[in-house]
Amino acid sequence: MDLDAVRTFVAAADAGRFQDAADELAITQQAVSKRIATLERNLGVRLFTRTARATRLTIDGQAFLPHARDLLRAEERAAASVRPGRRALRVDVIGRRLAPAALLGEFHRARPEVELDVVTLFDADAAIAAVRSGTIDASFRAVTMPGRRLPDDIGAARVLDEPIQLLTGPAHRLAGARAVTPAELAGHRIWMPGIVPGTEWAAFYDDLAAAFGLTIEITGPDFGTEPLLDTIADSRSLATFVGAGTRLAWPADHGLRRVAVRDPAPVYPHSLTWHRDNPHPALAALRDHLGSRPLDHSGGEVWTPAWAQR
């Protein structure tokens, strides 16, 4: 149904004259008559009767009027749901247990009046495509991978350097260490079955392994976090890497240990990405909030891939 015709019908019903409706809508009286005639033809009924001085609703017109008003209210609600400043700010956080989700949680606590829609997309390519299409407003990602660059219409700002920790079971040789250096991890088996080749996190760990001579194994099916933790807890030889901001929970009898990695501390470079033409006012508020935070939470010397954008 043509909503312009419905809007014209309601204006004419309220005004009582086609000319007054035309004045209100800033169109000609002929246009009003044409729209009403088209609507009547589509509905198969007469909506108005004309007298020398005014127009009056027919019985069918009176029956249709409340539904016409409902249609216009629904149109306004639909438009408001996607209007910048009225709709929720839609942000990709990669995973709900990862550091970007915590960053967005901090923003929510600081600005509870900002409505958020939190999503999790798979990799940087999917996230950047969604930002460019307007499907999402922003994404937390490591940018840019080797041999790639961000499109010119995408803005990015580094918002967090997240320290990487070693996660071991209680029987692992390094379980009792307060901290280890990357060089000390050479020769140890680090198992990360969740790494997917071609992703930004795969590029990060490939560079980390190459820089310090580490062995990072990605073999075996990825059954998720809980089976990984079960395996690490029971192993004397396997360990894995986790971000310091990654929220993990395990049974008390697992006895898992988080061991700091220092001198230098590998840090995962999280950036916020957004479309430069996105007018959503809450996006500016999010960027300001993240920009006011300290970038590096590791302390001391850090390592991150050369391709990670500052």
From TrEMBL:
Keyword Transcription listed: yes
HTH lysR-type domain span: 1-58
Q: Give the keywords, sorted.
A: DNA-binding, Transcription, Transcription regulation
Q: Domain of life, per the record?
A: Bacteria
Q: Which Gene3D superfamilies does the record associate with it?
A: Periplasmic binding protein-like II (3.40.190.10), Winged helix-like DNA-binding domain superfamily/Winged helix DNA-binding domain (1.10.10.10)
User: What PROSITE patterns has UniProt attached to this entry?
Assistant: HTH_LYSR
> What SUPFAM superfamilies does the entry give?
Periplasmic binding protein-like II (SSF53850), Winged helix' DNA-binding domain (SSF46785)
Q: Which family does it belong to?
A: Belongs to the LysR transcriptional regulatory family.
Please name the PANTHER family in this protein's record.
HCA OPERON TRANSCRIPTIONAL ACTIVATOR HCAR (PTHR30346:SF0), TRANSCRIPTIONAL DUAL REGULATOR HCAR-RELATED (PTHR30346)
Quote the protein name from its UniProt record. LysR family transcriptional regulator
